[in-house]
Amino acid sequence: MTPADLSRTVLHAVRRAVDEDALRAPVPARVRVERTRPGGSGDYACAVALQLAGPAALPAREVAALLRDRVVGVPGIGRVDITGPGFLNFTLDAATGAEARAARVGEIRELGLRYGRVTTEAGRLHRLHHPREVRAAVVARSVARLLRTQGGQVIVGCTEEPDPRWEELGVTAGLRYGAEESTEIRPVPASTTAGALLDRLGPEAALWGLQRPAAHDHAPLGDDLLVQGEANPLFLVRYAHARSRALTREAERLGFTAGYETDVDAPALHAALADHPGVLASAARHRAPDRVARHLETVAHAFLDFHDACPTLPVGDEKPSAAHRSRLALAEAAGTVLAGGLFVLGISAPRHL
After folding, report:
1. CA 260 – CA 105 distance, rounded (Å)
2. Cβ neighbours around 91 below 10 Å, total
């Protein structure tokens, strides 16, 4: 069961409770399910009971109990606990979890860069505008890409004449219109120009440096963005992607290809891949490409830890096995997610680094 499946299951439980007149509250458009934080209970947590308690005029724990009774026993859910003021905590069934992991790896390998894209906002037109400032222009471009991953249509404009060098950062000139017609994208300014950034850092490091911090934070744009080492998050993410592609090339040389045939024990990596669609949706909703950048760092760390702990390729005279093919499939899925996230940020994902 994926987070999206679990979200739909909880939403269905809310509808059932309302239809049965056990709960008198408006049914939300969506239910948010998040991976349990460190120290929490179960695999996933949901705060919908706290959201519904006020309209239902019931204690949140009572609402949570109503919903728990309607999701217990659903295939894929092993246990449902109520914690704190009324959080629902879900522990997935281990066997079903293995099936879900296999399905997810297969989905990523089938969809490629389209993994995580939905049509939730199909037909909705978003108009964005930004000032004549390099960070605002870059963030607006990525926000537009994020909204398109959700099915939206987007028009981006600048309130003044665009800087010609923005094109080197992948920012097209766009239209010119003002605040009365659209949503403003205005992060803390970079206090420099596109030309100065490009001349010093080049486009890839400049794009990462402008987008990695949250919009309300200043963007550190030092020369550490050019460091070729794992202490540099941009290098780490791109290196992890390149390493995943190198595994595929080496496997081809050894005469075998990927196929997720047996479950791979890599919980952190599986969790990071499962979170990718939710990260795209959250980043689009909050107009926050920095969330994508941070998630890519999580995926890269999880992949490299998995890579170090689980040999993907046969060693010596060892023959390729189902375990090797499955680990390779997981590695390829990680590389795909890294490439897809970098694409949203306008950054290339080189196969060699």
Report:
1. 7
2. 16
Cβ neighbours for 333, distance < 8 A, ≥ 6 positions apart? 104, 105, 108, 109, 273
Model confidence pLDDT, tens digit, residues 260-273: 999 999 988 998 89
Q: 318 with 247, same domain?
A: yes
CB neighbours of residue 29 within 10 Å: 7
In a domain, 226, yes or no: no
Whether 214 is in a domain gets the answer no
Residues 70 and 129 in one domain: no
Q: Nearest to residue 4, comparing CAs of 278, 188, 331?
A: 278
Residue 72 above 90 pLDDT? no
**Helix, strand, coil share of the chain (percent; to 5):** 55, 10, 35
Rounded Cα gap, residues 238 and 335, in angstroms: 9
b/e per residue 319-334 (b: at least 16 CB within 10 A): eeeebbbbbbbbbbbb
pLDDT digits (tens, 9 = 90+) for 79-125: 899 999 999 999 988 777 788 889 999 999 999 999 999 887 888 89
Report which secondary-structure segment, H or E, holds 53.
helix 48-56
CATH code for the domain in which residue 317 is found: 1.10.730.10
Residues 124-176: tens digit of each pLDDT: 899 999 999 999 999 999 999 999 999 999 999 898 889 999 999 999 866 66
Q: Is residue 186 part of a domain?
A: yes
Predicted local distance difference test score (pLDDT) of residue 180: 60
- Report the distance separating Cα 218 and Cα 210, nearest Å: 9
Q: How many domains does the chain have?
A: 3
Mean per-residue pLDDT over the chain, rounded: 92
Domain that holds residue 76: 3-92
pLDDT tens across 239-253, in order?
Answer: 999 999 999 999 999
For residues 44-77, one letter each, b for 16 or more C-beta atoms within 10 angstroms of the residue's C-beta and e for the rest, the string is bbbbbbbbbbeebebebbebbbbbbebbeebebb
